[in-house]
């Protein structure tokens, strides 16, 4: 069993929820003016906030505790990270190729 530790979620800073992505660009002043008072109050209260997905609304995430790993475990973990990075690279590559093919009309 891998040694894990809990850390505060960096996405919501432990707040368990984040501002609704629909509002991530904020409001223009005319949009704000168009809202009724209830809507503004609700927004200021955070009623429109949505659950933070990376931590599933718990405010914390579990990560491998590297400081508690022995040499073998660390090596295994690094290999796993490398593999994951390679996979991500492959995906990007694949998508690029598909893009290129589409542009050529395939
Ligand atoms: Zn979170």
Report on the architecture of this protein.
- The protein has a two-stranded antiparallel ribbon with strand order 1-4. Strands 2-3 form a two-stranded antiparallel ribbon.
- It has helices at residues 29-34, 37-45, 71-103; strands at residues 4-8, 17-18, 50-51, 60-64.
- With 106 residues, the protein is of the alpha+beta class.
- It has a domain at 70-106.
- Bound molecules: zinc ion (ZN).
- Zinc ion binds at residues 9, 11-12, 52, 54-55, 59.
Question: What is the topology?
Answer:
Layout: E1 4-8, E2 17-18, H1 29-34, H2 37-45, E3 50-51, E4 60-64, H3 71-103
Antiparallel strand pairs: 1-4, 2-3
Bound molecules: zinc ion (ZN).
Zinc ion (ZN) binds next to loops.
Largest sheet entry:
2 strands, antiparallel
Number of strands: 4
Structural class: alpha+beta
Helix content range: 40-55%
Tell me the strand percentage band. 5-15%
Helix tally? 3
Mean pLDDT: 90
Anisotropy-based shape = flat
Main sheet: which strands, in order across? 1-4
Unreliable parts:
none
In N-to-C order, the SSE pattern is EEHHEEH
Distance between the termini: 48 Å
- Radius of gyration, Cα only, in angstroms? 22 Å
| Bound ligands | zinc ion
What is shown here, in short?
By secondary structure, the protein is α+β, with helices and mostly antiparallel strands.
């Amino acid at each position: 069993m891998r040694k894990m530790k809990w850390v505060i979620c960096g996405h919501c800073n432990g707040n368990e929820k984040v501002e609704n992505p629909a509002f991530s660009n904020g409001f223009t002043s005319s949009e704000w003016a168009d809202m009724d008072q209830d809507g503004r109050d609700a927004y200021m209260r955070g009623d429109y906030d949505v659950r933070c997905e990376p931590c599933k609304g718990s405010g914390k995430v579990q990560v491998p505790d590297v400081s508690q790993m022995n040499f073998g475990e660390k090596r295994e973990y690094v290999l796993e990270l490398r593999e994951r990075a390679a996979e991500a690279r492959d995906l990007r590559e694949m998508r690029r190729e598909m893009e290129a093919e589409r542009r050529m009309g395939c």
